[in-house]
Design goal:
Layout lengths: L2 E6 L2 E5 L8 H15 L4 E6 L3 E6 L6 H14 L11 E6 L9 H8 L3 H9 L2 E7 L6 E4 L14 E4 L3 E5 L2 E4 L4 E3 L2 E5 L20 E6 L2 H6 L5
Parallel strand pairs: 5-13
Antiparallel strand pairs: 1-2, 2-4, 3-4, 6-7, 6-13, 7-10, 8-11, 9-10, 9-12
């Protein structure tokens, strides 16, 4: 069931469901693209989330009642899919080591796992891009295997190195730049995910799939990584 509510003077929030499921992010992304095409002169910004889409529109060109009615009509006639077959797969190399994984040693002890077991669990599956965070290249990925899920740190770190791979509850993600944060850091990638590279602006889209694959310390350094 889809619902539209007023989210601000010039914004509406479209709910696509009450629970997260694997097909939802792709449907939200597809509907967002449809909105861009249909109302390109009216829409200022679109922000997808786990179960909803925030739409910021130009109040000088259309009012809430008219715009919400037009969006509702589009929703009614939109074909939603129950699959994720059209998703892109993005592969990211990760060095899972105690030098790069700031919380790795603690997590191994808490989960009663050895390093190889932890690496296999985290890198064995494909993660769905559920939402985009504070940056276009900070993708919230899920679901993390229950065996390695961990809550956010009680005290966030002031600085986390760019490329750090973290876990927070059932989600995993890569920090694209040096930043503060409270995720459990388990490794680091040499792949540049910063916006210094313009190709990264659309690197992740909701509904895409991400797979991490382990590399050795030697490979990490050979590819330009710094510890």
């Amino acid at each position: 069931m889809h619902k539209i509510i007023l989210a601000g003077e010039d914004s509406i929030l479209i709910y696509f469901g009450s629970k997260i499921n694997s097909a939802l992010p792709k449907n939200i992304a597809n509907f967002a693209n449809t909105l861009k095409v249909e109302f390109s002169q009216l829409i200022i910004n679109l922000t997808p989330s786990y179960t909803s889409l925030l739409v910021h529109y130009d109040l000088s060109k259309v009012n809430y009642l008219t715009f919400s009615a037009e969006v509702q009509n589009l929703l009614t006639n939109f074909e939603f899919s129950n699959t994720t077959e059209d998703s892109n797969l993005i592969c990211i190399p990760v060095y899972y080591g105690f030098e790069s994984g700031l919380d790795l040693e603690r997590l191994l002890a808490e989960k009663n796992l050895n390093l190889d077991e932890f690496i296999e669990i985290h890198s064995d599956q494909e993660y769905l891009v559920y939402a985009i965070g504070f940056s276009p290249v900070f993708a919230f990925l899920g679901e993390v295997d229950m065996r390695i899920q961990a809550p956010r740190l009680a005290t966030p770190r002031i600085k986390i190195p760019a490329g750090s791979v973290g876990i927070a509850d059932s989600q995993t993600a890569v920090y694209p730049t040096d930043s503060s944060g409270g995720w459990n850091i388990i490794g680091r990638t040499v792949q540049d995910l910063s916006l210094k590279n313009p190709d990264n602006l659309n690197k992740f889209k909701t509904g895409d799939q991400v797979k991490f694959y382990p590399i050795t310390r030697e490979e990490f350094i050979e590819y330009g990584g710094q510890l």
